[in-house]
Design a protein that fits this description.
Helix content is 35%, strand content 22%. With 426 residues, it is α+β, with helices and mostly antiparallel strands. The radius of gyration is 25 Å and the shape is elongated.
């Protein structure tokens, strides 16, 4: 270990006291290293406190493989971290500190108390129990390199009021999402100064904006089951379409809910790469029924219940206000009977139900984004240790990395696991 003195020396300095930082600090401290955690805010884990509607979706109820698979191609990078700290171990960790957890029907894991502060306090307490010195209201201004020696201090870190020296630095400063939490992208600049490549960032897990009048008129309506596909203009780069299924919420600005938010990264990325070009969301509002079954339903009703209105049939599948708006777009009167619906009208209705095209005009941005897509290139970080391949002694964990997953506790799990692994090797 580096000998400590009164000038602010430490073995390891963790910059950022969020999910990844608290686990990184606790992990390193448990190895009897002298660890200092620097947090720019006046309190720790601000994003933890805000998450899940202040309930904190700790992780997802699946094994490490399930978490990795949820991240797609990025999941391979997370394998070692998840092997070091699995979802089950995260749950055991917080429960051992008095936070009883529950699993909701979606697979999301929350504290039984529904209090995010209980999770934050448990993690902060664990770090303190591990001997970590926590310094709040310490915004870092500069990270400088001193030496390549494995025993002498390699880094000098300057805050507004102090200077620190350490052998290893763990950067857990987060991304750009929820900038009100203090996540303003500071860590990207420091990593770039130390030789790293930044994959351009966009907001992810954020609501989608649509200026379409009928959508805004339906503000407050939730469709419990929809399937949505993103579609970019033909003139854009050829990309695989992304499909998500689940609840969709209509709002005064456009669309929200897990299904839409999981697609928002593609919308944001398209607008960043193709300014001014729109994205289409192709919506299946009745995914539980095939197109053929919808057509057969109306064919049968034409023969057996011709006096029944088309509106009453659609009302069986969708909220009344929504079905009224849909019929209006198809130029079908509310009182149109099943025996009277013209073929063109039925085709329009089926198209509206199964392949409704909604123009996305952008997203609500970082202000409402739960995570950041993009970040420090994974090619430059050793996934077995979280150490930089560019700068010895530098470790990176959490949202600062080019890793982002879906809603459901996956991103917190990635932060916890990468932070823990970094702390084990710093």
């Amino acid at each position: 270990m580096t000998p400590a003195n009164d000038t602010g020396d430490a073995d390891i300095i963790v910059i950022g006291g969020g999910a990844a930082g608290l686990l990184a600090a606790a992990s390193a401290g448990s190895r009897r290293r002298k660890v200092v955690l620097l947090e720019k805010n006046s309190k720790l884990g601000v994003k933890i406190l805000m998450s899940g509607g202040t309930r904190c979706n700790i992780t997802h109820a699946c094994d490490a493989r399930g978490i990795a698979e949820a991240f797609g191609n990025q999941g391979r990078f997370l394998r070692s971290a998840l092997a070091a700290l699995s979802p089950e171990e995260v749950i055991a960790l917080v429960e051992s500190r008095g936070v009883v957890t529950k699993v909701e029907s979606t697979g999301k894991v929350f504290p039984v108390s529904n209090r995010a502060i209980d999770v934050r306090d448990a993690l902060a307490g664990y770090a303190r129990e591990s001997g970590v010195k926590i310094l709040k209201s310490q915004p870092v201004q500069k990270i400088g390199t001193l030496s390549d020696s494995e025993t002498a201090p390699r880094f000098e870190i300057q805050t507004d009021s102090d200077t620190f020296h350490c052998r290893s630095v763990i950067l857990t400063t987060g991304g750009r999402s929820y900038p009100g939490c203090g996540t303003t992208g500071d860590g990207y600049a420091w990593a770039k100064q130390l030789g790293h490549t930044l994959i351009s960032t966009v907001p992810a897990l954020t609501p989608v904006v649509s200026h379409t009048d009928w959508i805004r008129d339906l503000s407050g309506i939730t469709l419990e089951s929809s399937s949505i596909t993103t579609k970019v203009p033909a003139s854009g780069k050829k990309k695989a379409q992304r499909i998500e299924s689940g609840p969709v919420l209509f709002t005064h600005f456009g669309l929200s809910g897990p299904t839409v938010m999981n697609l928002s990264r593609e919308v944001a990325r398209h607008y960043e790469e193709n300014p001014g070009q729109h994205t289409e969301l192709i919506c299946d509002f009745v995914p539980q029924q095939s197109e053929a079954s919808v057509q057969q339903t109306f064919a049968d009703l034409r023969q057996t219940a011709g006096q029944r209105t088309v509106a009453s049939v659609v009302n069986d599948w969708l909220p009344r206000r929504f079905s009224e708006a849909l019929l209006e777009q198809c130029n079908l009167a509310q009182q149109t009977r099943c025996s009277e619906i013209p073929r063109t009208g039925l085709r329009s209705l089926i198209e509206a139900l199964k392949r409704h095209r909604i123009v996305a005009h952008g997203t609500m941005g970082y202000q409402k984004a739960e995570v950041t897509a993009g970040g420090i290139s994974l090619k430059e970080v050793d996934s077995r240790t979280m150490q930089s391949k560019v700068q010895p002694g530098l470790f990176l964990a959490g949202e600062i990395l080019d890793v982002d997953g879906p809603i459901g506790g996956y991103n917190f799990q990635a932060a916890f696991s990468t932070g823990w692994l970094a702390g084990q090797h710093a």
